Automatic annotation (TrEMBL), chain A:
Thiamine pyrophosphate enzyme TPP-binding domain mapped to chain residues: 393-539
Cofactor: Mg(2+); thiamine diphosphate
Metabolic or biological pathway, per its Swiss-Prot or TrEMBL entry: Amino-acid biosynthesis; L-isoleucine biosynthesis; L-isoleucine from 2-oxobutanoate: step 1/4; Amino-acid biosynthesis; L-valine biosynthesis; L-valine from pyruvate: step 1/4
Family under the similarity heading: Belongs to the TPP enzyme family.
Keyword terms of this UniProt record: Amino-acid biosynthesis, Branched-chain amino acid biosynthesis, FAD, Flavoprotein, Magnesium, Metal-binding, Thiamine pyrophosphate, Transferase
Protein name (record): Acetolactate synthase
Domain Thiamine pyrophosphate enzyme N-terminal TPP-binding per the UniProt entry, residue ranges: 4-119
Enzyme Commission number: 2.2.1.6
Molecular-function annotations in GO: acetolactate synthase activity; flavin adenine dinucleotide binding; magnesium ion binding; thiamine pyrophosphate binding
Boundaries of every Thiamine pyrophosphate enzyme central domain copy: 193-329
Length: 570, 194
């Protein structure tokens, strides 16, 4: 059957079972939008800014096991998308982005709305393509989906010039892809896995450190089974929250710059460390030289060989899919009579419990006075029974969300961990809500971040997305203010948010429900009321204590054990 | 980066061990020259993926050459870089991670051959005319263009050989030089092929 390039694009998306396409039309993608109009399998979600289209596709992908898909036009459409693409790239999120390009003959002529999209996005995609022939569209899109979701996932961009979408050719969607240059390793090396198990069984002070790779690899069940069977303590990175149930006794909390005391101490002083789908980044281990000063054996499971021994030298590297490797470890463990030595493990747990008793996340919420931001997150967790999907923006509220919302399941926590993109939370929540209609979705945000994509309240109205926006409004770019307080002599340079709108009325202007809460006693009631409203977006503006800081804290470049536990430590 | 390591003044097993450890650490951290050879799909933009990777991650490129192979769908690149062992390990891993890269090998890990081509345009008048011809012969170069005032000399060899030719002739007589960057190939049975 001979059809146009534009129709091929849509047919490919149908073949890939894409149910939502996030996008924004423009000149170069008009033929594609015309084909979109003629069918109803792929539903288009019209955002208000291309950055939000990518974040929404990203939120959709993070909260499901599927690839997120977005469509943008050439020039500014593509450049607006770049922040979203880079966000997904840093967190290894599988996306396919289709961008329009000026007609082939106009490329290189400085045409209207022309940019070198493939060139601009090259450093922030897993791979990208410029389609030069209508006959290549189907194969290219097939490859794009394959690349996005296999190996270490990531965003893949397909740039299609306008004339190519108008030309015609025979359509057949390829059933398989084979690329001689791309063959990701799936199974781990058996000998290495055996070696790893031996180390784990001989450990006296073991620690399991799991990251976003466990969530992306859908290996949370296997990780949990392994950790429970071994009886080891487990910590999750910011990206890994939910990979191991946070309410479990063996969970010692998140680690890193704002990690729990017991997690950071355990990480530093363990003698055998099992790192799974994590990458020892600067926000996790602080200063690598300080981290390496304490001798320990490290086993590192990761699908990406370049993540292994990048910042920290590893003793037992295992390249492979984390689910596969953990499965094999479990099977080996089942077939051996050996067990970790209970006595030394007991001594280690005693030490961990002692660290835990420091209760590093305690805070004081008075009955009167200002609302503590931590209190709002804690109440949110209680009110939602710990079962909501939570997206966040970037800053203090993000850390409080990570610390006080206890995620027991993977893919429930959606945040921009690697790039740290303010403005991520609301559009990401749109993708999550569309993927999980009927499930509670909360967007924890700040008054700085929300204003970076607040126009999406309009999209939420159009598509009736009953997101609950939890704004922790402290009138400051809080994390910037915190650093200025701690490291820049209280000189709050440009971190005060003046001339803020009345957010509840702004939400009402968009057609949503707006609530303003400024008393601690009203927090729980407001949240309960909001989550009862199943059909409405409720925007809750919590006026919180502007002086509150995120603790514990490891200063940038310092060792994990140099923690500021509270303001009294300063 | 490199600094000369003096053996300890008085020999003792402990001092020797420390000295040896320091030597090993220094060697590991020393920036060594590496010749990396790779096969990459012969697609538009492939070169910029590789060069972009080096600049984005702050890796050093001393030279880079690229041309299609006998199989026109593949290009072969030779990259001369330098870095500590850790950095070079990351470079090869990151190159392997590029979707279009088919194979990567660090040629300098074992016996290999390097060759570079240089064209030098020199002033050739009066007594210098005979001298230049003699120098070209000594270095087994060929004069491939002649005018009444200049020669173009073609020279192939290792980087060191080309450097020494440039050093051996009167620098005032050099009008221009152009070098290709090196091509490398493994010796004997080592073959880089799909």
């Amino acid at each position: 059957m001979v059809i146009t390039g534009a129709e091929i694009v849509i047919r490919c998306l149908q073949e890939e079972k894409v149910d939502y396409l996030f996008g924004y039309p423009g000149g170069a993608v008009l033929y594609i939008y015309d084909e979109l109009f003629k069918q109803d399998k792929v539903r288009h979600v019209l955002v208000r800014h291309e950055q939000a289209a990518i974040h929404a596709a990203d939120g959709y992908a993070r909260s499901t096991e599927k690839v997120g898909v977005a469509l943008v036009t050439s020039g500014p459409g593509a450049t607006n998308a770049v922040t979203g693409i880079a966000t997904a790239y840093c967190d290894s999120i599988p996306l396919v982005i289709i961008s329009g390009q000026v007609p082939s003959a106009a490329i290189g002529q400085d045409a209207f709305q022309e940019v070198d999209t493939v060139g601009i996005t090259r450093p922030c995609v897993k791979h990208n393509f410029l389609v030069r022939d209508v006959r290549d569209i189907a194969e290219t899109i097939k490859k794009a989906f394959y690349l996005a979701k296999t190996g270490r996932p990531g965003p893949v961009l397909v740039d299609i010039p306008k004339d190519i979408t108008a030309q015609k050719c025979e359509f057949a969607y390829p059933e398989t892809v084979s690329m001689r240059s791309y063959n990701p390793v799936v199974k781990g090396h058996h000998g290495q896995i055996k070696k790893a198990l031996q180390l784990l069984l001989e450990a006296k002070r073991p620690m399991v450190y799991a990251g976003g790779g466990v969530v992306l690899g859908d290996a949370a069940d296997k990780l949990t089974a392994l950790v429970r069977k071994l009886g080891f303590p487990c910590t999750n990175t910011l990206m890994g929250l939910g990979a191991y149930p946070a309410t479990d006794r063996q969970f010692v909390g998140m680690l890193g710059m704002h990690g729990n005391y017991e997690a950071n101490m355990g990480m530093h002083y363990c003698d055998v460390l099992l790192a799974v789908g994590a990458r020892f980044d600067d926000r996790v281990i602080g200063n690598p030289a300080h981290f390496s000063s304490e001798p320990r054996k490290i086993i590192h499971i990761d699908i990406d060989p370049s993540s292994i021994s990048k910042r920290v030298k590893v003793d037992v590297p295992i390249v492979g899919d984390v689910g596969e490797v953990l499965g094999e470890l479990l099977a080996l463990l089942d077939n051996t009579a050996e067990k970790p030595e209970p006595q030394s493990l007991g001594v280690w747990w005693k030490q961990i419990e002692e660290w835990r008793r420091r209760d590093c996340l305690k805070f004081n919420q008075g009955e009167e006075g200002l609302i503590k931001p931590q209190f709002v997150v804690q109440k949110l967790w209680e009110v939602t029974g710990g079962d909501a999907f939570v997206t966040s923006d970037v800053g203090q509220h993000q850390m409080w969300a990570a610390q006080y919302y206890k995620f027991d399941k993977p893919r429930r926590w959606v945040n921009s961990g690697g790039l740290g993109t303010m403005g991520f939370g609301l559009p990401a929540a749109m993708g999550v809500q569309l993927a999980h209609p009927g499930s509670p979705v909360a967007c924890i945000t700040g008054e700085g971040s929300i204003q970076m994509n607040i126009q999406e309240l309009s999209t939420c109205k159009q598509f009736r997305l009953p997101i609950k926006v939890i704004l922790l409004n402290n009138g400051f770019l809080g994390m910037v203010r915190q650093w200025q307080e701690l490291f820049h002599g209280n000189r709050y340079s440009e971190s005060y948010m003046d001339a803020l709108p009345d957010f509840s009325r702004l939400a009402e202007a968009y057609g949503h429900v707006g609530i303003k809460v400024d008393k601690p006693g009203d927090v729980e009631g407001a949240l309960r009321e909001a989550f009862k409203q199943k059909n409405d977006l409720v925007f809750m503006d919590f006026q919180v204590d502007p002086t509150e800081n995120v603790y514990p804290m490891v200063k940038g470049g310092q060792g994990l054990t140099d923690m500021i536990l509270s303001a009294e430590d300063l | 980066m490199t600094h000369a390591l003096q053996p300890p003044p008085k020999s003792s097993p402990e001092l020797d061990a420390n000295w040896l450890r320091e030597l090993l650490v220094t060697q590991k951290n020393t920036k060594m020259r590496h010749v990396i050879s790779l096969l990459i799909e012969n697609e538009a933009g492939a070169l910029s993926r590789v060069s972009g990777l080096f600049s984005a991650r702050g890796y050093n490129i001393e030279s880079l050459t690229v041309a299609p192979t006998e199989d026109a769908s593949l290009s072969r690149m030779t990259i001369v870089t330098s870095g500590s062992d850790d950095v070079v390990e990351q470079i090869t891993k990151q190159l392997n991670k590029l979707v279009e890269v088919v194979k990567v090998v660090d040629l300098s890990e074992s016996a290999h051959i390097e060759r570079e081509l240089m064209l030098v345009k020199v002033r050739a008048t009066g007594k210098d005319r005979e001298e230049m011809k003699r120098m070209a012969e000594i270095f087994r170069g060929r004069i491939i263009d002649v005018t009444d005032a200049s020669y173009v000399i073609e020279l192939t060899g290792t980087q060191a050989k080309l450097d020494s030719f440039v050093g051996a002739i009167d620098s005032g007589l050099i009008l221009e030089t152009v070098r290709s960057g090196i091509c490398g190939i493994g010796r004997g049975d080592r073959v880089l092929k799909v």
